[in-house]
Design a protein that fits this description.
Length: 227
């Protein structure tokens, strides 16, 4: 009675067909390598799309020979993790494509035995677009943080400017009143003019602070109040 044997063979064929279907159609890069030296045994189309390397380019060669690891230490990290636990999840690494450009991948791998020899089967997802989006998000967050800092500085500057304006009112206006009462040849005129000019310079600085606080330049014009 070969019924059980036939059923087992049929189940094995079905399992292999599912594996090959998944292997061949996965958009992620899937490759099988020798654990010992990283020699490529098989790759899928997703691997070619990710790296630009075809089967003819890699089968029978090691990952170090084709220089696919931008940092060879990442492969050693992967191998160490596999030897320790038998699997490695979510290793983020940079890979060198066939044309020399870099791509970012998120790799998970496990050790499997093929004919009694330990191999690595790994799946790598292209996360280059995700990294670009994360960088853009980080830049926006930095810009927002900078805008919030500038807003806080502007609020502080506005408060300081208004307080200084109250103080400077006397330094700018009283010298002018004093000059009206002094004769043209008074030795005090020079000192009072110096005080007045210093007050006007300080007032100009205050206006700069107010410009910062308002986040815009104020345009002034002379108006005849009689009109």
């Amino acid at each position: 009675d070969k019924t059980e044997s036939d059923l087992a063979e049929g189940a094995l064929r079905e399992s292999e067909e599912r594996f090959h279907l998944t292997f061949d159609t996965s958009p992620d890069a899937i490759n099988v390598n020798l654990l010992e030296n990283g020699l490529y045994v098989d790759i899928n189309d997703g691997f070619t799309q990710l790296t630009g390397y075809t089967r003819e380019d890699v089968i029978g060669r090691t990952s170090l020979e084709i220089n696919i690891w931008h940092d060879p230490g990442d492969r050693q990290k992967l191998v160490n993790g596999l030897r320790e636990k038998g699997y490695y999840e979510n290793l983020e690494a940079q890979f060198e494509r066939k044309d020399g450009s870099l791509t970012n991948g998120l790799m998970s791998a496990r050790i499997i035995s093929l004919n009694g020899i330990p191999h690595i089967i790994s799946i790598t997802r292209d996360i280059s677009d995700l990294k670009i989006a994360e960088a853009a998000k980080q830049k926006l967050q930095e810009q927002l943080h900078h805008a919030q800092k500038m807003e806080a500085i502007g609020t502080l500057a506005g408060g300081v400017a208004h307080d200084l304006n109250n103080i400077l009112g006397g330094l700018v206006s009283y010298p002018e009143l004093l000059l009206l009462q002094l004769p043209d040849d008074s030795p005090l005129r020079k000192s009072i003019l110096t005080i007045q000019k210093s007050g006007e310079k300080a007032a100009a600085v205050v206006q700069d602070l107010l410009t910062l606080a308002r986040r815009g330049v104020v345009v002034t014009e002379v108006v005849n109040l009689n009109d």
